[in-house]
Amino acid sequence: MTSRSFLKFELLQISRFFSVGVLATLVHLVVSISLVFIFGIFEQVSNLIAFGAAFGVSFVGHYTWTFKSHARLLEVFPCFAAVALSGFLGSAIVLHTLHSMQFWTQEFRVTVAALAVPAITYFGHKLLVFKK
Questions:
Q1: Can you give the pTM of this predicted structure?
Q2: Which has the closest alpha carbon to 84: 9, 20, 36, 13?
Q3: Rounded CA gap, 44 and 114, in Å?
Q4: Cα 84 from Cα 124, distance rounded (Å)
Q5: Is 68 left (phi over 0), alpha (psi -120 to 50) or beta?
Q6: How many CB atoms lie within 10 A of CB 79?
Q7: What is the C-alpha to C-alpha distance for residues 132 and 130, in angstroms, rounded to an integer?
Q8: Do 106 and 43 form a contact (C-beta atoms < 8 A)?
Q9: Distance from C-alpha of 72 to C-alpha of 81, rounded to nearest angstrom
Q10: d(Cα 101, Cα 94) in Å, to the nearest integer?
């Protein structure tokens, strides 16, 4: 593979990761904010439920489209889940930290927590889960 075709391949993969990540993040945001403001559910609980919804979108999108994996689902899923859970733990820490600084709104805290994950997890998925 030439350096030009390698760069093209990497940029396409990053753009696909970004697209799936945006969709998963939007799902996370809509679910989390809806649970907080419509149902009055505590931020950490709504974040956990929203993470589950976004996880499903993310796994299907990255497995079938971003990385076009040919590995068996059961081989990829545990490592994907470990990287995703690490990202969730990171978002929970961010959310807890921002919550302790009471001067920011709930919307801001939930949004920052949801946006912190995609940038971190790309490299975990690329290097650990879907390595070729």
A1: 0.75
A2: 20
A3: 12
A4: 9
A5: left
A6: 16
A7: 6
A8: yes
A9: 15
A10: 11
**Do you know the residue count of the chain?**
132
The whole-angstrom separation of Cα 57 and Cα 21 is 9
Report d(CA 55, CA 39) in Å as an integer. 21
The domain segmentation of the chain, as residue ranges, is 3-129
Nearest one of 81, 73, 29, 90 to 54, comparing CA atoms: 29
pLDDT in tens, the chain (132 residues): 789 898 999 899 999 999 998 999 899 999 999 999 999 999 889 989 998 999 999 999 999 999 999 999 899 999 999 998 888 788 788 888 888 887 688 888 878 877 777 777 888 898 889 886
Burial class (CB in 10 A: 0-12, 13-18, 19+), 121: buried
User: Are the beta carbons of 56 and 42 closer than 8 angstroms?
Assistant: no
* 40 phi, psi to nearest 5 deg: 70, 25
